[in-house]
Amino acid sequence: MSFREIAELIGLFALPAMIVGFPLYGLLRRVPVYERFVEGAREGFDVAVRIIPYLVAILFAVAMFRASGAMEWFQNALRTPLSWIGVPAELVPMAIVRPLTGSGSLAVLSDMVRQYGPASELTRMAATIYGASETTFYVIAVYFGAVNIRKTRHAVPVGLIADFAGVLLAVLIIRMMFG
Description:
The chain is mainly α. 80% of the residues lie in helices and 0% in strands. The protein has 8 helices and no strands. The radius of gyration is 19 Å and the shape is globular. The model has no long low-confidence stretch (mean pLDDT 89).
């Protein structure tokens, strides 16, 4: 059985197992599952209202970054060093935007789908980066801001290292599965 077949088999059962498993586990522990779900949804709505100013600020900053031409400059500047480690320079926009915003990185991914096609190696890599990395600065700005944490200490460097690892592993895994 190949790596790809194993991944497909795990993917087939993982989500249904979680959807059934978590509530079942809660019921077995005599947790009022529905009431806790509703309580969490209510708290989530309150958080969503509090984070709107942070969200607007990040979306504005990303739009300015793209409109200024800085994105294309970074892509061209990093083309040669990235080729040394086997990372296509076309992934630079996703690698830069993903730590900033989920909606911005979804827009980058959509552009790549239109430009390269949905089944291209580059699009698969970008989609894997989208799923394997976090919106680090968004999380720091929004969630740390929502609970009034001002000193992020190691959160930013660790988050960016994890994002970089996600980019490298996305390239490696897509090449293993489809290359």
